Amino acid sequence: MIQFSHVYKTFRGEIHALRDVNFKINKGEFVFLTGHSGAGKTTLFNLLAGFDRPSSGTVMVADYNIHELADSEAPYFRRKVGVVFQDFKLLNNRTVSDNLLLPLEVINASEQMMNEKKLHMLSALGLLEKENCYPDQLSGGEKQRLAIGRALISQPEVIIADEPTGNLDPQLSRDVMKVFEQCNRLGTTVFIATHDQQLVLEQKKRVISLKQGEVNNDAATA
Amino acid sequence: MMPLLRKYLRFSKRSWVSETRLRVSTLVILIFTYSVTLFLIQSAFNFQGIMNRWGDSTKVTVYLSDGQTPETRDKIEKSILAMQETKKTKFISQDEAVAQFRSKNSLFSKDFLEDLKTQEVFQESFEVTLNGSLKDETYFAKIQETSKKIGEIVGVEEVSYGQGWIERYGAFLRVTNSLVTVIVVLFILASLVIISNLIRVLVYNQKEEIEILELIGETARNIRMPYIVEGLMFSFTAYVVGMFVNVCLFVWISEEFAGNSMLSHLAEIVASPSLVFVAAGLVLSCVVGLISGFITIRSINTGWALSNRTN
Question: Quick one: which of A70, A84, B134, B284 is 20 to 30 A from A222 by CA?
Fold first, then answer.
């Protein structure tokens, strides 16, 4: 499902964000990516999501080679990957509903399908009463949940999340992780970048650890 | 098509709400630009119409040698009419020539006009009207050539067609044609710049939205389309309003001319834009809108916004 082979990423020819990164993630796996700030998590995350291309090496995700991803193919690849951004990336001029439905709007889903999924997702995220609010009117936790909902609503093959619990209290963090686990149980591959060691230890999943742009450790937590 | 239309309508609604002032001011500027340009172009066309009307009345005067008999006059007239370029002829006798001179120069002293001896001053002549008009760029050459041929007919003393006037007239027509071309080019450039600037500002203000749409898998085509349609709609709206303003203006000018005894003959020439002109302008304005929208958004929406920002 996901394979990194000898991946390098260099910015402006001098900043080596990733160096010879190698790992493989099978379909349906649940994996954490950890590392300190500047370890290369976000860079790896961007490559995984098809937002950027590697400087060299091969990144394969859902049968797409990111290095060779054509401009015209990129949108179709991105639809297969649900992404939760660290800074949410919500549209402030659209309501909670509109933000949630963006991925369905992109694939020209029917109004009926959008309404059904919207209701289901809003109630699952506890945002039903905020349906017509704008992101500015939401708390950090609500924004986070909305961002997660947007990533999940189109039922992508892979879900990747960058610090999805960064703005949540421990209880909400656990609730959010439950949502990811439910998706994972349905066969979706989940890949979460986090520096929350407590969360990683609680989940007992495979952990890929980055240090200075290199894979430092790749193992399941005991 | 329907989802795209739905997307555009949503986009347009949101944009009008969030960018009302920018949009209104751009539309007003564009309407002003289109109105002034259309007025200038139509004025140039009308001016040409007036000049062409004068040009249509251009005649070649063929002065006959003294002592022509009715038979030789007929022969000369037939020779002139046999030429392909001639339309009709009118014989002007010496008496008629004097009468014309007196009527055209009524301000001269009465005594002078009455003392005129027709045989001494005026000759018999034919007034020859040629086919075509001065609108035709080859008309000037045609007059020259025909005049030369007429001059070679036995019994013809001199051929006159107001050479200096026609040359100046031809030059004037060429200048107005060039002027119209320059105005049209300036109009296209100004419209492109105005619409492009609007789209650029819109895109800049919605850069984050475009980036997010890219990240969740919206195609470049679907991201660009609303901006391109926006350029089209702005140009189309401005053109329709500008054209309406111009039609009203020229109807008013024509009515004013009709009510003025000195200018009444110009009323029918001072016309509102023709249907062909309206249709051509509509197509051109739509193309200008589409091109300006396309060029601007294409240079901004590459599909790799995040990558471009970090690398």
Answer: A84
